[in-house]
Amino acid sequence: MIYSCEVHGFSKEDNCPACNEKNKIVLDDEQEKTLGQFVSGALRHFPENAGLSMYSDGWVSYNALMYVCSKRYRWFKKEHMNALLQVDKNRRYEKNGGKIRARYGHSVDIVLNYPDYTLPKAYYGVSEEELDVVLENGLKPIKQKYVHLSMTVEKAYEVCVIHTEKPIVLTIDAAKLMENGYKVMQANEEIVLTGKIPPNYIKKTD
Ligand SMILES: [Zn+2]
Questions:
Q1: How far apart are CA 149 and CA 71, in angstroms?
Q2: What's the 24 CA to ligand 1 centre distance in angstroms?
Q3: Domain 2-102 CATH (choose: 1.10.10.10, 4.10.1110.10, 1.10.10.970, 1.10.8.80)
């Protein structure tokens, strides 16, 4: 559910976190889910099927996105897209002038150009079953265009525990990767993107 306060804008709270006035509903749960899935799918996986043309670095026209949403959902209004983007805690999207793109999670063949990662280490969680395979073969993007790493052990654990009961967090030597010419990028405040990572840059976290 996404709400809005006339003065303070969109939030996920029933009452406005700034003035505590009763908010009005902008998107109900069903609409938020439907629109969110379509937007993330269109920007990460199926721009063409959604009727969008995507630049090689993942951008699409913001107006074109709104147009296809309005064709698809009769209830759709411009403010719904603003609402969706403003309450997005995971910072999935990036808007720049008349364009929008997903920051991460792509399966479409794009090339992202984010700033270099600046911390020496990054982290990646695996299941017990995956551990030996990864330590032996390294990591490579499978369904996605990039390997997604986390900046902290805690975050890597949190991401991984969704899929497996007892995550094992691996440490990636990001500094050495970059030293040796691999691209390691900061997509947002939490997510780090790279291509394939050979096994000699990966170890179990102490
Ligand atoms: Zn308010």
A1: 36
A2: 10
A3: 1.10.10.970
Count the alpha carbons within 13 Å of 32 in the hemisphere toward its beta carbon: 17
Q: Per residue in 130-164, pLDDT tens?
A: 999 999 999 999 889 999 999 999 999 999 999 89
CATH 3.40.630.10 given to domain 121-204: no
Q: Give distance in angstroms: CA of 21 to centre of ligand 1.
A: 6
Residues contacting 166, CB < 8 A, separation 6+: 127, 128
Give this prediction's pTM. Answer: 0.88
How many alpha carbons fall within 13 Å on the CB side of residue 186? 11
Question: Cα of 74 to ligand 1 centre, how many Å?
Answer: 28
